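Per your request, structure below.
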């Protein structure tokens, strides 16, 4: 029997994801129960779920896994959730590899964002362990939009590293700050030379004169606690630095903020993106590259 005889039962307007041919037929199922199809013209198979060529696993599953990773779920918890929702249970290493791969993609697609931020910034320093090393992550936020302008992972606390970090924030913002609110970093911030002409006023924390500033800084402290959950157990410095960047993308572009009435910091700062979630980022990566998942 000609396999195209079953074509009437195919999804409407279905085309081959490799060559766009409509001459398709059903070709069994994947190990996870997803319908598979085969093209009579190019001879290649593909799955009928929301997946792209060269991807064996639907992108919605991969996107959900990366999102759970940046929300702070452990690898085991992510596997349990995927099994419960999609009846698919990848290995810990597979989930971790997805997180790193699509973090690189997220950094590529957000490299040219130009947020419109104010002149009052909040600087914060977080100490954590990466393997046997004590490291510090420095962050600088715009107070008004809560946009995270720059994050830097460092094994030292020298003024040169701090200056490079602040200059990254200035470059991203396209301006120098008028005021910086900081905690125990205030003295070191006073010692650095600025990339621009203006000089910022450094206000030690928690002695703020404006109550709103105190609330904003406390909210940021709580937010950064969630990043510690994402990075727990990490031992590789290069991977940790990558995840610091990925968390910045997750926070700025994908995570709604209560203080912004449910908008993301990127939206509040006018830094528009073409993606709404990690699934969109996975899709962009799959469309551009041949590496299978």
């Amino acid at each position: 029997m000609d396999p195209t005889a079953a074509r009437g039962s195919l999804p409407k307007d279905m085309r081959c994801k490799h060559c766009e041919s409509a001459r398709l037929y059903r070709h069994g199922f994947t190990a996870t129960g997803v319908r598979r199809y085969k093209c009579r013209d190019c001879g290649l198979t593909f799955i009928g779920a929301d997946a792209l060529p060269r991807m064996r696993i639907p992108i919605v599953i991969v996107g959900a896994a990366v999102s759970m990773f940046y929300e702070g779920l452990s690898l085991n918890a992510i596997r349990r959730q995927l099994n419960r929702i999609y009846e698919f249970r990848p290995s810990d290493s597979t989930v971790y590899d997805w997180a790193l791969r699509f973090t690189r993609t997220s950094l590529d697609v957000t490299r040219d964002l130009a947020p419109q931020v104010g002149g009052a910034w909040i600087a914060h320093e977080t100490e954590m362990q990466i393997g046997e090393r004590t490291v510090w992550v420095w962050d600088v936020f715009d107070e008004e939009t809560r946009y995270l302008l720059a994050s830097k992972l460092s094994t030292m606390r020298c003024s040169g590293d701090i200056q490079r970090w602040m200059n990254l924030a200035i470059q991203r913002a396209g301006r120098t700050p008028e005021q910086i609110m900081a905690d125990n970093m205030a003295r070191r911030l006073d010692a650095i030379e600025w990339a621009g002409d203006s000089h910022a006023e450094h206000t030690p924390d928690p002695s703020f004169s404006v109550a709103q500033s105190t609330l904003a800084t406390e909210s940021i402290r709580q937010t950064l606690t969630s990043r510690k959950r994402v990075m727990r157990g990490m031992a590789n410095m290069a991977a940790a630095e990558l995840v610091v960047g990925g968390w910045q993308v997750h926070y700025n572009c994908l995570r709604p903020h209560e203080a912004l009435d449910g908008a993301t910091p990127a939206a509040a700062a006018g830094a528009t993106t073409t993606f709404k979630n990690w699934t969109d980022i996975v899709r962009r990566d799959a469309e551009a590259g041949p590496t299978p998942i």
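Residues 30 and 36 are 7 Å apart (CA to CA).

Regards,
D.
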